[in-house]
């Protein structure tokens, strides 16, 4: 999959910006988390977003999605000023995005199939039969068999929860998918399989992936670019190889330390 990621990187161009974040500031009381952050995500890439624990990685993702109020700054999605959109125009943009929250965030009282159908019910008026057919397609996409459809989240393994949550994120055929720590809690084999799944979906469906992660293996295997969050701003962006050349103590320790995955040639 690393080769697939490298090949796709050549197709990424600044002229194809799908998500643009400019001067975003977010505070919780007196604590300033994001301090004028800028970031671009290009069409068709898998962007790995990294930073220290508590640095604000998930805060940025949630502020982009409008789940956390910004103090300042603006977000453009698909060429539209997302913050200024209302009503039907906002819904059109929302339907083009999917989200896999950390730990899956499945509704415990709903079956897997019912969880996948939640976005369908929210945005469209579809027959139950059609929703069932679409949900089965999404289950197949993420590698879950039909026997998973009627299970509840409590009956699933950690890996199955991640895949069911991804199926829900793909329910509306989005162009841009946000993944928050998608491999956390998975064993190495399960994490590698999930990485392969993400890369395969990107390549087959033409997805753009914004992935918050701590997983060095994921960064090595499937990410076209990496963005580093430090002190409330994006310190640097680039390939994994470029990260090893950044003159910053935290970045050096992260990418060239004892657990580093990248070995310079």
Short description:
The protein has 265 residues and is α/β, with parallel strands linked by helices. Helix content is 37%, strand content 24%. It has helices at 2-9, 57-64, 87-94, 112-123, 128-141, 158-169, 188-205, 216-222, 240-243, 249-256; strands at 17-28, 31-42, 46-51, 72-77, 80-81, 97-100, 176-180, 208-212, 225-230, 233-238.
Please, could you describe this protein's structure?
By secondary structure, the chain is an alpha/beta fold. Helix content is 37%, strand content 24%. A 6-stranded mixed beta sheet has the order 6-7-8-3-9-10, with helices on both faces. Strands 2-1-4-5 form a 4-stranded antiparallel beta sheet, with helices on one face. The radius of gyration is 18 Å and the shape is globular.
What attributes does this structure have?
265 residues, alpha/beta, 6-stranded mixed beta sheet, 4-stranded antiparallel beta sheet, 10 helices, 37% helix, globular
Query: Order of strands across the biggest sheet?
Result: 6-7-8-3-9-10
In total, the number of strands is: 10
- Overall pLDDT confidence: 88
Tally of helical segments: 10
Strand content: 15-25%
Shape: globular
Percent of residues in helices comes to 25-40%
Radius of gyration: 18 Å
SSE pattern, N- to C-terminal: HEEEHEEHEHHHEHEHEEHH
Instruction: Catalogue the unreliable spans.
Output: 1-14
Structural class: alpha/beta
| Gap between N and C termini | 19 Å
Q: Could you give a short account of the major beta sheet?
A: 6 strands, mixed
